[in-house]
Amino acid sequence: MYPFATDEETSPYSYSAIFDDSEMTGFDFEYDFCQPKILTCTPEPDAFNPCEDILGYSFLRVLIWFINILAIAGNFTVLLVLITSHYKLTVPRFLMCNLSFADFCMGLYLLLIASVDAQTSGQYYNHAIDWQTGSGCSTAGFFTVFASELSVYTLTVITIERWHTITYAMQLDRKLRLRHAVPIMLGGWVFSVLIAVLPLLGVSSYMKVSICLPMDIETGLSQAYILLILVLNVVAFIVICACYIKIYIAVQNPELVAANKDTKVAKRMAILIFTDFTCMAPISFFAISAAFKVPLITVTNSKILLVLFYPVNSCANPFLYAIFTKAFRRDFFLLMSKLGCCKSQAELYR
Predict the structure, then answer these.
(1) Distance (Å, rounded) from C-alpha 18 to C-alpha 125?
(2) Cβ-Cβ contacts under 8 Å for 190 (sequence gap 6 or more)
(3) What is each CA distance from 56 to 94, 127, 138, 232, 300, in whole angstroms?
(4) Residues with Cβ within 8 Å of residue 348, at least 6 apart in sequence
């Protein structure tokens, strides 16, 4: 049963607030109107729906705006620069565009959650049903699951591409071409969309909690869905670790290091990958325990992880793999020079 259900309401969903001292008998207007009211949520709050605002903590309200603005602005900038660059669209650039789009979608999810929290602050109990059972929460849930899975998939492909390029650096006939990368990423898009759509079709649900994540594990199918996502993410991490171990071994060859210009790129991507999965590790750990119906953390405390760890890479990624690189700065200043800005800096890269 959905945690907001009541016995008396004709609608299956109900959530309201009552005042403990709201007896109508002997009502003294001047006294009762001016006295603070003690708020009590009904029905009783449970593990999934505590009687609190969407974010719960004041400091999270500040952080989520900081993170979502960085995620949206940073990834939009990367997408704009990479797409408008007059340089040839290479496989790494193509993959980075996909990763930026995934992280941009994560920023949109955070923006939706932050906006609704700001609008309902202090009175979320009056809006809980409309939000969690409406199209807004479903849209936010779709964005975050799609973005998360596409990001993990793209990071895995990026790592495999780096390993393949470095391992077969001297064999040009085995180089990964754009015609190979496009169908690979198309498969990732189809997979990510499918995973994000399933909760809308009844496999788990985005309505379980106020932050619109698929936490419903009441049925065996829903539990299998959550476990599938977690297992696939763990497998992706193992593949990434294996590839970077092989890359590390490969670049120990002095001849290969001298002949291969991709070694520095691989090291930078290693920082990116392990930063991502280090941040995802606590989320995965607590999610696996919850999937087996042995929750080790409350929904209230999980919001701290979901704001501080889950999306933080979406604002860090564009800086780690693009904005801090010389190639990106070249493309950025050349683009700005076309708009009449930063002409002196652009001349340094011509």
Answers:
(1) 10
(2) none
(3) 39, 15, 20, 31, 7
(4) 333
Cα gap 322→155, rounded to integer Å: 14
DSSP 8-state secondary structure symbol assigned to residue 293: T
**Cis bond leading into 43, ω under 30°?**
yes
| Three-state SS at 18 | strand
Q: Which of 254, 276, 266, 248 is nearest to 162 (CA)?
A: 266
Q: Which token pair is 264?
A: 């520095």
Would the pTM of this model clear 0.90, i.e. be above it? no
Residue 19's beta-bridge partner residues?
39
Label residue 53 left, alpha or beta by phi (over 0 means left) and psi (-120 to 50 means alpha): beta
How far is Cα 93 from Cα 316, in angstroms, rounded to an integer? 17
Q: What confidence tens digit (pLDDT) does each residue in 248-303 have?
A: 777 766 555 544 555 666 666 667 666 666 666 666 666 666 666 665 566 667 77
